[in-house]
Amino acid sequence: MAEPVTSAPALDFETFVAERADALLRFAYVLTGDRSLAEDAVQDALTTACARWGRVSRADDPEAYVKRMVVNAHISWWRRFRRREAPVPEPERSAAAPDGTADRAEAEAVWELCKTLPDRQRAAVVLRFYEELSYAEIGVLLHCAEATARSHVHRALAVLKKTLTKEGADDA
I need a labelling partner for 12 at 20 to 30 A (CA). Which of 50, 71, 92, 164 fits? Predict the structure, then answer.
């Protein structure tokens, strides 16, 4: 006689956090571009997830569910504080630095450019190129149509290209 099929045991919240906290922090950092904002977004998301863990753990993909909560936490923060922009000085251009610092400087320059994008466009670019999600998956996470997700990415890339082209012309 065959044994009855049982569903997989429910994922324990503490186990989930222990296994996925670092990945969630990396995701949030890429999304926000700031370590403290990333930590705040993850903390807000995990606080909410803990309170609703029964529903979250039953989701098809609890990690995607919590990632969406991170995105929502960041968007909520951005809506509250978007008018509090602080100008930063123009970065100084110097000769190429040895020992991989040029690569790090280039990566930081890319992040600075990404920070200039509107939140939804930045989130779409991060989800597309860092998380390697499809446009359909991005649409689900951002609560928009797949075509809208494509549009966010396309517009963001157009702005980045225009900015880089302009900076290249200024350097010449």
Answer: 71
